[in-house]
Design a protein that fits this description.
The chain has about 210 residues and is α/β, with parallel strands linked by helices. The protein is built from seven helices and seven strands.
């Protein structure tokens, strides 16, 4: 998918388009040194990473005050959600958690250069005090049962976790339900016919 095709799927302002282009340029500049994303996906960055992240933003409540993205890596989906949130005029505060200090430095650079005010924490998810997120997201970080454990710690009681999962999503869901009690909705992915996005409602219970 090209930039033009992304814009056909997701309408954004001219200013936001410039931010996305700047993000793309930063990603390419840094990627050779610290491997933010697989090199094979760079030519498809507008679909594989930008639109794939944007679809999570579309599922988030407009009234969410705190969005926490775990294991942000190159900033997906959290940084894209922050860009789109600013474009929509929302007041959501974003925290991106990334334990790799080099990737965290990249994220801080993107936030600064794009004027986003995103907070970047270079710590392990397990070591953080509860973040009480209204929206909790994680992409390609861990199996769903592990993500449920993170949600228990960091999701507000009335919050929603957004966890995209690939072709093995049904098996991951079964394993997670075997060990935890939680309610969920399933949304089909716009970028992968075999993938879904699990929407976990409320802090899961044992």
């Amino acid at each position: 998918m090209s930039e033009a095709e992304f814009l056909a799927a997701r309408n954004v302002s001219r200013e936001t388009l410039q931010q996305l282009r700047a993000y793309d340029a930063l990603l390419r500049r840094w990627n050779g040194a610290i491997n933010l994303v697989s090199k094979s996906t760079l030519d498809a960055v507008w679909s594989r990473h930008f639109l794939d992240s944007a679809q999570l933003f579309a599922l988030a409540s407009e009234g969410a005050q705190i969005w926490v993205d775990l294991g942000s890596g190159g900033g997906f989906p959290g940084m894209i959600a922050a860009i789109l949130s600013a474009d929509a005029g929302r007041k959501t505060q974003f925290t991106l958690v990334e334990s790799d200090v080099r990737k965290a430095a990249f994220l801080a650079t993107v936030s600064r250069d794009l004027g986003l005010g995103v907070r970047v924490l270079s710590e392990r998810v397990e070591a953080l005090a509860p973040l009480r997120a209204d929206i909790l997201s994680a992409r390609a970080l861990a199996p769903l049962d592990k993500l449920i454990e993170y949600a228990k710690r960091h999701l507000a009681p009335d919050g929603v976790a957004l966890f995209p999962k690939g072709a093995s999503h049904a098996d991951e869901l079964k394993q997670a339900l075997d060990g935890h009690h939680f309610s969920y909705l399933t949304a089909k992915s716009l970028t992968d016919p075999d993938a879904v996005i699990y929407q976990i409602r409320g802090a899961p219970l044992d």
